[in-house]
Design brief:
alpha/beta, 261 residues, binds NADP nicotinamide-adenine-dinucleotide phosphate
Length: 261
């Protein structure tokens, strides 16, 4: 199937690591032009250089997306270099474990600023360009938005809020033909996931405990499998799909986990 993503300009926040990096790498394989927006500069520059050296088109924009000005800069630099935006993939996020007991009102607001504020701000500044291109938006949320996790109030509020924004924007942007969808990963091995796993005394035992409860294949979802779902949904092959929540998670969220054990 041809996804017809050639020369499409695709902004990927958090594009230098984990799921975002997999989306960027899969995008260039489709001939698309990924814009890697990331806070840490070294990883972003390194990935940009590797892709440019391999003959692909891309751009790295360093931005701490908790700041409104940085979000605007990401949009402005994209348009100044490539004159359009076809897809916005809101992906950057971090589970900072700000809970109800282990947290404060200030930490809660700071986490909200880090995790959901930029989903809105980027969409706001990208909108005029998406209207022109009749583009689309994908919000990367999390299965924890619908299951909870414990000790993660601000992260879960952000992830659930991203689902609300997905439905809300899908409605608001119907007149422009702009589709908006959400992808909800569950268990995907990335630097963030590895960091969380390593907080346990025996990370490998914890990993085994988790994977044996994943119904399809008792294994983690790969970042590339998330990327494939995201790029298909962003493509015109998914042209009648909007306001949807997609769970590429081996059945972890919805199937009876007893099936796997
Ligand atoms: P990751 O490996 O930590 O990658 C996230 C990237 O986002 C990092 O490069 C990080 O940059 C960047 N980032 C985070 N906050 C940022 C900000 N405020 N401004 C700019 N860049 C920022 O994490 P991941 O596991 O791929 O997660 C990607 C998305 O998937 C997140 O939204 C996460 O909630 C969601 N998710 C992941 C899983 C999973 O199992 N991995 C499950 C459910 C949902 P720095 O390195 O500079 O911090």
């Amino acid at each position: 199937m041809d996804l017809k993503l050639k020369d499409k300009v695709i902004i990927v926040t958090g594009g230098a690591s984990g799921i975002g990096e997999a989306i960027v790498r899969s995008a260039v394989n489709e001939g698309a032009v990924p814009i890697i927006v990331n806070r840490s500069e070294d990883k972003g520059k390194e990935l940009e250089k590797e892709l440019l050296d391999a003959g692909h088109q891309c751009l790295f924009v360093q931005a701490d997306l908790s700041k409104k000005e940085a979000c605007k800069k990401a949009i402005d630099e994209t348009v100044s270099k490539f004159a359009k935006i076809d897809v916005l993939i809101n992906n950057a996020g971090y589970n900072d474990s700000i809970g109800l007991e282990n947290g404060s009102p200030e930490q809660f607001m700071e986490s909200i600023q880090n995790n959901i504020f930029h989903y809105y701000v980027l969409a706001h500044y990208a909108l005029p360009h998406l209207i022109k291109s009749k583009g689309n938006i994908i919000n990367i949320s999390s299965k924890t938005a619908v299951t909870g996790q414990g000790n993660s109030s601000a992260y879960i509020a952000s992830k659930a809020g991203q689902l609300g924004l997905t439905r809300e924007w899908a409605v608001e942007l119907l007149p422009y033909g702009i589709r908006v969808n959400a992808v909800l990963p569950a268990e995907v091995m990335t630097p963030m996931y590895r960091g969380w796993l390593n907080s346990y005394d025996n990370p490998e035992a914890k990993l085994k405990e988790i994977t044996q409860r994943i119904p399809l294949g008792q294994r983690m979802t790969t970042p590339e499998e998330i990327a494939a779902t995201v790029l298909f949904t962003a493509s015109e092959q998914a042209g009648h799909t909007t306001g949807q929540y997609l769970f590429p998670d081996g059945g972890y969220t919805h199937l009876d986990r007893a099936i796997g054990s």
